[in-house]
Give the backbone structure.
Amino acid sequence: DAGVTQSPTHLIKTRGQQVTLRCSPKSGHDTVSWYQQALGQGPQFIFQYYEEEERQRGNFPDRFSGHQFPNYSSELNVNALLLGDSALYLCASSLRFRTGRNTGELFFGEGSRLTVL
Amino acid sequence: RKEVEQDPGPFNVPEGATVAFNCTYSNSASQSFFWYRQDCRKEPKLLMSVYSSGNEDGRFTAQLNRASQYISLLIRDSKLSDSATYLCVVNINNNDMRFGAGTRLTVKP
């Protein structure tokens, strides 16, 4: 049973460039959430996708956008990169509705570490 | 006010010590609560859910006080392997999870 997979694991960009990060959720999960984690901080919620639509959004500018595909995989896009966008980007998958033994637990991928120079 | 606030730490304790972490949350409509553990340069993983009645899992005890919007985690008989960052997590709505900044614990021999 494959867990959450993310790609790429590491990447370096320069200011002003654009980046796309990818995530495949855990088998059987239908919801993907994206988080930004700066060094020494907790994960900050960017947005959540379910049924190919953005359902909730945290306090991030429109430069951050995403997409969910019919197979539940997801992309995070960041335009006009700033130095402050350097962080670990975590994808987490879950089941939308808590039924039976579904505790609502988030399962995280290992993250994509973005460095903006 | 931050959505989820935790003791800043770090906590440095000897093996065998008992250590407690505190957390407060601002959204009174929050639905569920968790403690996650994050090892250095790794992804967060669920440690335990937190229930109103309090719950225990081995050496770990979690408590929730909805009236005070307060969550705690108690670790008894600390082990070297407990060294990690502990993240307080609040489910705002439909798995929209908000994380605290985390409290780093180092258990020393």
